[in-house]
Amino acid sequence: MTIYDVAARAGVGIATVSRALRGSAPVADATRAKVLAAVEELGFRPSHAGTSLAARTHAANGIVFPDLSGPYYAEVLLGYEETASRLGRSVLVLATHGRDDPVSSVRDLALRVDGLVLLGRTVPDHVIEELTAFGLPVVVVARPEVGAADSVRADGLSAARALGEHLAGHGVRRVAFLGAPEESPDVAERWRGVREGLGKHGIEPTVTPCLFDEASGTRVAAWLLAGEERPDALVCANDEIALGAILAAEEVGLRVGVDVAITGWDDVMAARHARPALTTVRQPMRTLGALAAEVLDQRITGHRTTPRHESLATDLVVRDSCGTHP
Amino acid sequence: MTIYDVAARAGVGIATVSRALRGSAPVADATRAKVLAAVEELGFRPSHAGTSLAARTHAANGIVFPDLSGPYYAEVLLGYEETASRLGRSVLVLATHGRDDPVSSVRDLALRVDGLVLLGRTVPDHVIEELTAFGLPVVVVARPEVGAADSVRADGLSAARALGEHLAGHGVRRVAFLGAPEESPDVAERWRGVREGLGKHGIEPTVTPCLFDEASGTRVAAWLLAGEERPDALVCANDEIALGAILAAEEVGLRVGVDVAITGWDDVMAARHARPALTTVRQPMRTLGALAAEVLDQRITGHRTTPRHESLATDLVVRDSCGTHP
DNA sequence: GCGTCCGTAGGAAGCGCTTTCATGTGATGA
DNA sequence: TCATCACATGAAAGCGCTTCCTACGGACGC
Q1: Gap between the Cα atoms of A65 and A289, Å rounded
Q2: Interface test with chain A among B273, B280, B285, B321, by most A beta carbons within 10 Å
């Protein structure tokens, strides 16, 4: 079932079929009708490979995740896919996590898409520069601007400041930040904001390195809470750490929200259902994905040639784990 | 940068370059070395469209989700992507949720992949039959067997029976099942198993229709718990409903696990962190995805031509929401 | 020493589409 | 009435690759 069959059936040339189908050049109404009728009868759908080869386009976008675990990424993907497909593009996903050669995988992916979205620290900067230099539109999400690539991120600074101030209002004195600010600019920003917010009230928080999963949260929190100078607030770099910390606090018999305040970041589903419910910061995940797709599309279609850098607001979500509210 | 450039550089014909690169026919060692050197120097990577057109293959798999929300699907996708890429295939995702014409989207997708995985009720049976009749390998996940398609699912029957018996052991008498068994065979299976498990102890549960989200869970549970014949156990078709039900119980001052038992299904992250922690059934999500990729691959490569139907075991995860354990 | 065969390599024909270029048609103006 | 032109259309040339078919040597057997 090729364009030749359709052409034969409609009694026209293949060029006319192509033109009638994609409207790239005027076709007489009667002819177009014949072509469309033939297409309908034969159930013709153009071969993607043929189109892609001749038109030098893929009608597909890629998106690269460090891993896909957790609700964070699923939401981003959902927003991305929805918008991309509305713009007529398929979506190819790639998770670099646990892959032996992420760079090569990304390069391969780059060959079959018209543009690429990269989340976080999936590949080194020089690879991104290589891709953009090659002419491939690239959007980075949750990662600092790099080269000619566009960028989309959630601005955590003001929410982090608000969180710091809010905690100060609860009367906390010894605040520990759990996470690794040096590993990610986003986390560094959170740390900075919290520090500023607390600083206004004369409180100087400390950083305790912690991996971004629940088990690490439990381990590090347990260690902190058993120490000499027990913190009265644990500000965690994400919700997983915070949920793990809540378990640790319960373990040693401390009341979360009373003896120790614990906060997270992301507002995953479990945050709302934890008891006490977790005070955290909500990120517009789905919007992040949708925006990335849009920004990318502008580049692909050539509607824009200068880099665009978007920053979305985040919201402090106050619940009970930071202390009781009247 | 095409195969012609490489051929010229290496001083051979393009056919030889192709053979050297894909090993489809013997090439003298010296020649192969020259070709590989040229490829290396020129940084040549074969055009995907060209390959795909000539070789009549896409080196890509599709996966179709009803939607991507929730940890369930993210995990499936993760397992799928990991295995598919290990098998040398890219992954195209499609979420039918909120789409005006899912069938057409799936048909489009079918044109650019070598095989397709369909999750749940994304498209009607006749579309699947059409696709398989067309010769496209299809695997359905969490959906009853259909036509010539392979299938992969989690077997919930024994876990559901175990759940029913466990609840009976807690001494519950009036059990309500929240969900819509008629809408999904998987849920029907859960209902059947629970009913059988309880039936052994002379308890006859009832079904209360409920959508599969948290808000519906809260609403339906609130209504049930305020009724005349207040149930002392709410068996929910998934964790979201159950988490919503916990909120409803708290709202009316009932102690979950004491005054009323509540159970879920899926073991999402929030289930573990809810208080009381949710008794639920764990599904091997990631394995489900990985298995689907494998089953699909066998068909694509032609290693198997008869349908394969896999069923994975699920585990009852007993926590506190069904009652206190010593 | 000559014919045969195998291993190797190149030419060329597609794969299904888009697009350029050339052509034919009827309508228009002089 | 004839040249001109806009419009519609078809033929054909790619797009970059795979693979069939053919051809060329050199090694082998007789």
Answers
A1: 12
A2: B273
Model confidence pLDDT, tens digit, residues B299-316: 999 999 999 999 999 999
Q: What does the pLDDT look like over A184-204, one tens digit per residue? A: 888 999 999 999 999 999 999
Nucleotide at minimal C1' distance from the A53 CA: D15
Determine the average pLDDT of the residues in B90-97. Answer: 94
Q: What is the separation of C-alpha A138 from the centre of its chain, rounded to a whole number of angstroms?
A: 14
Yes or no: say if A221 and A191 are a contact pair by the CB < 8 Å rule. no
Decide if B258 contacts B291 (C-beta within 8 A): no
Confidence band (pLDDT; 50, 70, 90) for B99? confident
Distance CA A193, CA A94 (A): 32
Closest partner residue to B82 (CB to CB) among A85, A98, A272 is A98
Dist. CA B253–CA B247, nearest whole Å = 10
A93: tokens are 């996903």
For residue A145, the 8-state DSSP code is -
Distances (CA, A) of B315 to A63, A108, A246, B155, B261: 33, 39, 26, 10, 19
Measured CA to CA, the distance from residue A16 to residue A35 in angstroms comes to 8
- The rounded distance, in Å, linking the Cα atoms of A148 and A137 is 9
Question: Does the pLDDT of residue B68 top 80, yes or no?
Answer: no
Return the structure tokens found at A41: 């009868």
State the Cα–Cα distance between residues A75 and A288, nearest whole angstrom: 9
d(C-alpha A118, C-alpha A139), whole Å: 6
**From the Cβ of A206, is strand C under 7 Å away?**
no
Cβ separation A81–B93 shorter than 8 A: yes
How long is chain A? 326
Let me know the angle formed at the C-alpha of A189 by A127 and A171, rounded to the nearest 5 degrees: 160
Residues in chain B: 326
Q: Give B77's contacts in chain A (Cβ within 8 Å).
A: 68, 74, 77, 93
What distance in Å separates the CA atoms of residue A4 and residue A15, rounded to the nearest whole number? 10
| Closest in A49, A77, A270 to B53, CB measured | A49
Enumerate domains of chain B plus CATH numbers: 3-46 (1.10.260.40), 60-153+285-312 (3.40.50.2300), 157-283 (3.40.50.2300)
CB-count burial class (<10 Å; 0-12, 13-18, 19+) for A26: exposed
What is the 3 state secondary structure string of chain B? CCHHHHHHHHCCCHHHHHHHHHCCCCCCHHHHHHHHHHHHHHCCCCCHHHHHHHHCCCCEEEEEECCCCHHHHHHHHHHHHHHHHHCCCEEEEEECCCCCCHHHHHHHHHCCCCEEEEECCCCCHHHHHHHHHCCCCEEEECCCCCCCCEEEEEECHHHHHHHHHHHHHCCCCCEEEECCHHHCHHHHHHHHHHHHHHHCCCCCCEEECCCCCHHHHHHHHHHHHCCCCCCCEEEECCHHHHHHHHHHHHHCCCCECCCEEEECCECCHHHHHECCCCEEEECCHHHHHHHHHHHHHHHHCCCCCCCCEEEEECEEECCCCCCCCC
Residue A75, helix vs strand vs coil: helix
Contacts with B23 (C-beta within 8 Å, 6 or more apart), sequence order: none
